[in-house]
Amino acid sequence: DAGITQSPRHKVTETGTPVTLRCHQTENHRYMYWYRQDPGHGLRLIHYSYGVKDTDKGEVSDGYSVSRSKTEDFLLTLESATSSQTSVYFCASGGTGGAGGANVLTFGAGSRLTVL
Amino acid sequence: EDQVTQSPEALRLQEGESSSLNCSYTVSGLRGLFWYRQDPGKGPEFLFTLYSAGEEKEKERLKATLTKKESFLHITAPKPEDSATYLCAVQTLEYGNKLVFGAGTILRVKS
After folding, report:
1. CB B71 within 8 A of CB B10
2. Which residue of A has its CA nearest to B43?
């Protein structure tokens, strides 16, 4: 079984509608992340969480909010979707097992969102 | 501002033709440098972590090295199944548990 799952995998929506993407991990990892991936930009961090109810902004957080009510679940919400938010969204989770606290991340398969 | 730059953007190799991918970084307080592989339509998959200059790690045809300013991913005698996008990421003391990714190198290996 996959350690981290995302839903939905594909979604088409219209400008101005709310959208929620879900991420579920079974690794009992403390840290969880939402990234977006766009051609030429690589992966850019939207928000991340360092524990239940503890979240922080990434480099492209405008227009997004997150919530983490349980260790295993991390939700990404677009309150009012815009065409610029058309992208592939990846969730990741990680522990602190590396030297110096370096995190090895496990990624989900991605959620492709199209905003018309 | 911390930056991670990967080159080349794309690389085409013949099967068996060895080459290297580059990841240069301008960060302070490096905690770790990571290499990931990403296949089309899938999430990135972890390959290596390097922690300090001079460190090397190997896995099958891949070897990652690290200096104070850059990392190389050497691919020896590549096969078509090595075709993927290779991503480099850094974690720093300043940014705690956030990883900053480069834009990636798209590798195509032809038989």
Report:
1. no
2. A109
